[in-house]
Amino acid sequence: SSAASDVYKRQGLCSVSCLGDNEFWTCGQDKFMRLYNLQGNLIQCVQTKSGKRPREINVIQGGFVVYTDPYSSTRSIDILTNALIFTIIRQQGWVPLYLCSSSSRDLLVTMVSDDMKYTKVVRYFGSTEKQSIQFDDQGKPLFSSDPKNVIKYLCENRNSDICVADCYARAVVVVSAVGKLRFRYTGHVSPTKEPFFPVGITTDSQSKILVADNSHRIHILDQRGRFLRYLENCDLNVPYGLCVDSTDNLFVAEYNTGKVKKIQYYK
């Protein structure tokens, strides 16, 4: 059975990212990014550069924090270093939404076009765009686009696959490092027949893919997209943002309750 402990509470929590194994950054529905320890003590609270709420936050190599600022006039990606914030990427025509760091120290970012008709994943090295992933081999969009649902968390697996939780499409879309479609996971057939609404996504040291489902559970897949099991019985209430620490403890940010739960899920 999984052991869960509540370590933080603030409603509307969207994102969590581990800083080592004893602290984590969070962001939600306000303009602040907060660093907590496992005891729930506030270590640091930083306002975004624009004063707008960030869409997602991610700790990269070196312990620096990057976040997307899609609601600002610059539609930027900013970095927090030593309590100072610098803009590293500005966008025109596209809005940055969700991001993650890769093993090669690149940034992977999901973006939606200004008119909300197109979605892509962009790879950056520093402020330089290295790659854009938008279409499959037949020229069809890999990712859905809808102005009412732009939720597309993403992560990189150990084999360099890029895993995108496409909530509007009700699918996890996984492409290779060069942008070739590997598979789509559209949920597991269950007796309750609940719809699959993927939000937060992360991977662990065994290349398993963990996907938060708005129906109060987490799906665990292998790297080929095969369903392994549900993570249930942890009293999850709208799990949203996900991350794992260096020993594969899972951190779950709950949207409704604002709690972060640390879960030992592996067997």
Helices and strands in order:
Elements: E1 3-9, E2 15-19, E3 23-27, E4 32-37, E5 42-47, E6 57-59, E7 65-69, E8 76-81, E9 84-90, E10 94-101, E11 107-113, E12 119-125, E13 128-133, E14 152-156, E15 162-166, E16 171-175, E17 181-185, E18 198-203, E19 209-213, E20 217-221, E21 227-231, E22 239-244, E23 250-254, E24 259-264
Antiparallel strand pairs: 1-24, 2-3, 3-4, 4-5, 6-7, 7-8, 8-9, 10-11, 11-12, 12-13, 14-15, 15-16, 16-17, 18-19, 19-20, 20-21, 22-23, 23-24
Structure description:
This protein is mostly beta strands and 267 residues long. The chain is 0% helix and 51% strand. It contains no helices and 24 strands. It has strands spanning 3-9, 15-19, 23-27, 32-37, 42-47, 57-59, 65-69, 76-81, 84-90, 94-101, 107-113, 119-125, 128-133, 152-156, 162-166, 171-175, 181-185, 198-203, 209-213, 217-221, 227-231, 239-244, 250-254, 259-264. The strands form six sheets. Strands 1-24-23-22 form a four-stranded antiparallel sheet, with no helix packed on it. Strand 22 (239-244) and strand 23 (250-254) form a beta hairpin. It is globular, with a radius of gyration of 17 Å. 40% of the residues are buried.
A few lines on this structure:
The protein is mostly beta strands and 267 residues long. It is built from no helices and 24 strands.
Structural class by helix and strand composition: mainly beta
Mean pLDDT: 92
Strand tally is 24
How many angstroms separate the termini?
9 Å
What Rg do the Cα atoms give?
17 Å
Keywords for this entry:
four-stranded antiparallel sheet; mainly beta; 267 residues
